[in-house]
Amino acid sequence: DAGVIQSPRHEVTEMGQEVTLRCKPISGHDYLFWYRQTMMRGLELLIYFNNNVPIDDSGMPEDRFSAKMPNASFSTLKIQPSEPRDSAVYFCASRQNTEAFFGQGTRLTVV
Amino acid sequence: GQQLNQSPQSMFIQEGEDVSMNCTSSSIFNTWLWYKQDPGEGPVLLIALYKAGELTSNGRLTAQFGITRKDSFLNISASIPSDVGIYFCAGPNTGNQFYFGTGTSLTVIP
Tens of pLDDT along B26-74? Predict the structure, then answer.
C-alpha cells in the first residue's frame, strides 16, 4: 500500500481564494482525520470521519472550513475564502483499529 | 478538549546520550502510540502499546504503557544525529477520541 496520499504537497494562494486539499486514505481504514499543524498550536484535530460519516467537527475553526468524504477512498478539506492566518501544514491520517498513519501533509501559504 | 501533556518540551543532547520523555493524560487511554516527525514530513509511527505495564522496544527505542493507563514513556538509547525531530505521543481514550500530545523537540549535537 502506498500509504496516505495527500495533494498538493504545497499550495500558495491569495487571500480570498478557495483552497481544496485532498486525501486518499489507506485502503480498508475506516477512520480519517484532518489535522492542522502550526508552530504556535502544534497538531490540532480539525475533523474526523468514521465510515465516511463526520463524527466530530468541533475542531473546525470557522464556517470557512468544510470537509467531505464522499467515499471510502477520498476526502477533501476546503477553505473558502482563505485568509493569511490559515497558513499551516494540513495533515490527513487514516486509521484501522488503533494505529493511525499520516500523509506527508500539504503546506498551505495564504498571501 | 482532551490534552496530552508531554515533557520536556524540548531537549538538546550530545550524540551518544540517552533520552527520556514522557506523556501524561487526565483520562485513561486504551492504547499509547509514539510518533516521530522529521522536518517537512508527516508523523511516522514508531511504537504502539496496548496493555497497561507493557514495555516494547524497537531498536534503540523503548516505550512503556503506564500502570495507571494515564501515562507513557519513551526512551532512546545512544542517540545519533538522525534522531533529531519532534516526538509525539498519541492514542484513543476509552471514548474512542484520538488525541495527540504537545510534542517533544529533540536536537542531537554531534
Answer: 888 889 999 999 988 999 999 999 999 999 999 999 999 999 999 999 9
pLDDT of residue B94: 66
Task: Identify the bridge partners of residue B6 per DSSP, sorted by sequence position.
Answer: B23
Set of chain A residues whose Cβ sits within 8 Å of the Cβ of B35: 102
Average pLDDT of span A89-109: 92
Q: Looking at the DSSP assignment, which residues form a beta bridge with residue B76?
A: B19, B61
- Cβ distance of B99 and A45 shorter than 8 Å: yes
Min Cα–Cα distance to chain A from B41, Å: 5
Q: Do you find a cis peptide bond into A8, omega within 30 degrees of 0?
A: yes
Residue B105 phi, psi (nearest 5): -90, 125
Q: Which residues of chain B are within 8 Å of residue A31 when distances are taken between CB atoms?
A: 98
Bond before A81 cis per omega within 30 degrees: yes
Chain A hits for B99, CB-CB cut-off 8 Å, are 45
CA distance A102 to chain B (A): 6
A54 close to A39: Cβ distance less than 8 angstroms: no
Which of these ranges, A45-59, B4-18, B85-99, has the smallest mean pLDDT? B85-99
Q: How many beta-carbon pairs below 8 A join chains A and B?
A: 47
